[in-house]
Amino acid sequence: xxxxxxxxxxxxxxxLAFLGCLLLFSCNPDMTLLNxxxxxxxxxxxxxxxxxxxxxxxxxxxxxxxxxxxxxxxLSIAADEGTSRWGNWGMKDLNTEPRIPFNNIEEYSYxxxxxxxxxxxxxxxxxxxxxxEAIESGIKIGENGGNNSGCVAYAKFIKGISYGFxxxxxxxxxxxxxxxxxxxxxxxxxxxxxxLSFAVQILEESIVIMENNDFILPSNWVNGISLTNSDLVKVxxxxxxxxxxxxxxxxxxxxxxxxxxxxxxxxxxxxxxxSPEGKxxxxxxxxxxxxxxxxxxxxxxxxxxxxxxxxAFQQWLSMDVxxxxxxxxxxxxxTLDRRISGGLPGEDGxxxxxxxxxxxxxxxxxxxSRYKHTRYKYHFPEKTGPMPILTVTEMNLLKAEALIRLxxxxxxxxxxxxxxxxxxLPPATDDDPDLFDKMKYEKRIECxxxxxxxxxxxxRGWGDLTPGTPIHFPVPARELNILGIPVYTFGxxxxxxAPEK
Length: 501
Description:
It contains 21 helices and eight strands. It is mainly α. It has three domains: about 280 residues, Serine Threonine Protein Phosphatase 5, Tetratricopeptide repeat, CATH 1.25.40.890; about 80 residues, no CATH class; about 55 residues, no CATH class. A two-stranded antiparallel ribbon has the order 1-5. Helix 10 runs antiparallel to helix 12. The radius of gyration is 23 Å and the shape is globular.
């Protein structure tokens, strides 16, 4: 149902106006919300230094809204990529089988699963809009406004990837394109497809500006990377590629993706990994951090099991969920994949470490293995080093998927880059009957714990989510209650839940 916001019913406006001011003031530790002598938002945004401070914090705001425990680990668990017996970030609930509905009530302890990306993305969008409008109204960034075009392109980029994640994560969201939309309550809910189209539009607008203006972004905007306009064009194209493919809610929608346009965007996309540098507590990656925190999370059998040659995985998979509880942590997969196993029984692979046998009970969580993912072990505990979230490997494997779907040659060559080069597995060929499955396996193993939701959004479109898993998430109950809209949710069964296989 399309819900028009009125002056009497204006949750998003009221909250985001407050959050926008909060972010403005948080950029300067000497300012507080309670100091009535401080300049208001209009005056702040007429000062180039304040606008630059907002620009400096834009990427971090976006990052903290999707790459932290909420919802990055929530989605990883729901995709049976990682698994955990702990409740944090809704992990235990999202990992439970049979699947249960997502608990979309304000009192839910882990409501941040939906609140963090919802309110966080709109904070980023709000600030991007205000930066763009401040520059359009005459503010000059750099000598004689020489940096204005680059700043507008960058703000649009953040705005575009913020809407892109909203389109992937929620069933619907709100398009807010200018500051007056907040002030006049001029917005309504749009479907995820409409949000996706808007995100792509904004990213394409940013690309036009980037292609026509030379600039280099300061390395503290995306920590450790001095992005040129040409670099940012490639990153934006790769995000468009990801959003187009991963927005599909089922196999048919994934099949109906415009794969020719995906190929074009990939060819115009990144040629090296987009990999910000960790900066300790201030800027880090929860996926990479907690995957190496002893006892916190483990690798799900559903990720490593497909390469098992012993039959143990298939035996485990055939068991009733109740029986899996006591068996799950007691077996190892035998595999030729050198990323998982070094070759000898119990020997670590390139990317995985085998933990000692566990005898404790995991409750309703039946997927916990003895494997830890160690590819990013350098990030724990100091929270430093490269944090790849958009990789050349991801783009290669997405291109392989496009070629397979379009019936074109070349997919096997792309798959073999990692399958043979790192896994030391027998090479795939373009006429393999199971080439698509090999592509999916490579993406699971190679892109594990890179970007928030990568495994979840792929599994959704491939039809591989565990039946009953929410295929997307509802608008937070907090928002719905203020608007007077009935609270709803997804998961377990019915519309908005992954179907039986």
